[in-house]
Amino acid sequence: MTLKSIRGTKDILPADSAIWQAAEEAIRRVMMAYNYQEIRTPIFEQTSLFSRSIGELTDIVSKEMYTFLDRSEESLTLRPEGTASVIRAYVQNNLGEQSPLSKLYYVGPMFRQERPQAGRLRQFHQFGVEALGSSSPQLDVEIMLIPLEVYRSLGIKETTLFINSVGCPNCRPIYKKKLVGELQKIVNKLSPESQARLQQNPLRVLDSKDERDQLATNDVPLMKDFLCSECAAHFDGVQSALGALKIPFLINGRLVRGLDYYTKTAFEITSTALGSQDALAGGGRYDLLVEELGGKPTPGVGFAAGMERLMMVLQKTGSVQTKQRVPAVFIIGLDEQSRSWAFVKATRLRSLGIPVELDYLGRSLKAQMREANRQEAVHVLVIGDSELKSGTARMKNMKTGTEQLIELEKIEDALRSA
Ligand code: HAM
What we know:
binds histidyl-adenosine monophosphate; alpha+beta
């Protein structure tokens, strides 16, 4: 039987890795500009970390986690997202005591056993940030600006920022009761999935993609109209900070997100270049999560963005030009002694950071020239007995076809000035 990768996972092949690297460079540049520091947490954690933070009744925890018992019968889970792990690390390592505001970012793989489709994988990658220690609405907007700046710097134009407020434990239970009452009146018009959700996670009925639900819930009350004074003031603060920066946004009162830890701000950034899985990034505020995971009460806000979805947009819009990496010189050795000289020389040049390629397949001069061409090597240097004796060789520029006589001892100078 031939071995294959797991359904919903993807190899990132050399042909694609240049564009991934370009995106990762853009991400790190933006993180630096906004003064976020990288945190790397383990790929797997205790299962209870995710069930306690994301919420037992969410799709992620109830249906999608890769959970297994290790050999000591401990329940472990491959991280389905980054926030829970970052907060766990923040609490465990007392990062809050080291500075009043921790600004952390991460880039890495996440795992969810969802039904694979375009833009939805079982192993996917996210870049994201978590900022811990401030409840300022300006910080919420800073968090929205980071992915927007990454997209802008990569030449992606068609994005839409949707914001909402999901309230807090003061106002949400009152609203939830009201919502459940209204939904019960129209329960027969809802999809079977939403009927089941009505009891357990009624807010999620609002962002159902099923047309029946959308039609039936057209007039139900929305959280944003039931906010307590503190949440309403915070939501106003977010909107005026966005306004001050002239960042276009839309309020979507149905945006509730699929994770339970949010309080106040929730947001998503979508792209029309994507299909039904159109969310490029999502995030929001979670002022109770640090305390729920055993830390001191600490407000927090963050986002995460899908890398594969970013790649889909980049490939569609062709907005990133990646430079193909090519050898600065392809050294061809004509005999045993020349090959051995070429091997030593190549190693020396490589240690200086000059990309060099050689033949390891014992090919003929003609075949090696063809290979140098295929690899788009900038120069070719052919070394034989007479070149070694004279200490000089002709280096051919493959683009212009011109040849230059160089001293073998000074190849690096010749390459630098060529
Ligand atoms: P999320 O909305 O579950 O939020 O995921 C964020 C982004 O990850 C999505 O907008 C999407 O681009 C990408 N994504 C999610 N699932 C998949 C998948 N199966 N395949 C491909 N891409 C996917 C979170 O994960 C929160 N931790 C965000 C956050 C950080 N909130 C506060 N801090």
